[in-house]
Amino acid sequence: MTKRTKEILALLDEKYSREYKCYLNHETAWQLLIATILSAQCTDARVNIVTKDLFQKYDSIEKFANAELSKLEQDIKTTGFYHNKAKNIILCCRKLLDEYQGEVPRTIEELTSLAGVGRKTANVIRGNIYHEPSIVVDTHVKRISKRLGFTKEEDPEKIEYELMKVLPKEHWILYNIQIITFGRNICYARSPKCEECFMQKYCTEYKGINRKHQGKNEE
Question: Known catalytic residue: 138?
Answer without folding.
Answer: yes
